[in-house]
């Protein structure tokens, strides 16, 4: 009789049974832990889910609060254009490639096609419409006109907002700084020379 047989035949609980039993217990504990973790992850995920139903939000645009009811899938660009009739932000690529939809959010240039309107509630949105009013024309607009920074004009509102945001953050920027800083906006007409000169002049005029 080998040692295993002797061990098996001995009275009560033997070492092999113990090892088998403890292995099963460890496996069962691991399965239970994995299930509990998955349940916790699923609960966290469910807590993050947003209902598809329209929601009432307040958008602060150009210093004014606007109460809107929008579905969560609606982008800021769509809310501005379709709900508030602020069509300065242009719907060109709708996928963060061209910059034609640029607005400022809390002072920073952002592609409005990449944000949901409900995300932006509570932040300050500034659009191209704010740069030219009956009382005041922003220097960026004047410099675009002076340097002939537009042809078809389709990219222009987005470029103007990108320049305004860039110059706010980088007063006294060089021409090369402007070229790098405005790399997120595309002009199909190729008016880059005028746009860059307008940005440079605006930056140099900053205090
Ligand atoms: S329309 Fe938003 S980046 Fe082109
Ligand atoms: S002026 Fe036409 S796309 Fe820029």
In short:
With 207 residues, the chain is an alpha+beta fold. It has eight helices and five strands; from the N terminus they run H-H-E-E-H-E-E-H-E-H-H-H-H.
Could you please describe the fold and organization of this structure?
Helices cover 46% and strands 12% of the residues. It is built from eight helices and five strands, in the order ααββαββαβαααα. It has helices spanning 3-9, 15-48, 76-83, 117-120, 139-146, 156-169, 175-181, 192-205, and strands at residues 55-61, 64-70, 102-105, 108-111, 124-126. A hairpin with a 2-residue loop joins strand 1 (55-61) and strand 2. Helix 5 packs across helix 8 and helix 6 (156-169) packs parallel to helix 8 (192-205). The radius of gyration is 30 Å and the shape is elongated. It binds FE2/S2 (inorganic) cluster (FES) (2 copies). Residues 91-94, 96-101, 111, 113 line the site of one FE2/S2 (inorganic) cluster.
Task: Record the SSE blueprint.
Elements: H1 3-9, H2 15-48, E1 55-61, E2 64-70, H3 76-83, E3 102-105, E4 108-111, H4 117-120, E5 124-126, H5 139-146, H6 156-169, H7 175-181, H8 192-205
Parallel strand pairs: 1-5
Antiparallel strand pairs: 1-2, 3-4, 3-5
Bound molecules: FE2/S2 (inorganic) cluster (FES) (2 copies).
Please name the CATH topology of the largest domain: Ubiquitin-like (UB roll)
Number of helical runs? 8
CATH level 1 name of the largest domain? Alpha Beta
Provide the succession of SSEs: HHEEHEEHEHHHH
Mean pLDDT: 90
Helix content: 40-55%
Count of individual beta strands: 5
CATH H level, superfamily name of the largest domain: Beta-grasp domain
Instruction: State which percent range the strand residues make up.
Output: 5-15%
Using only C-alpha atoms, the radius of gyration works out to 30 Å
Unreliable residue runs: none
Overall, the morphology is elongated
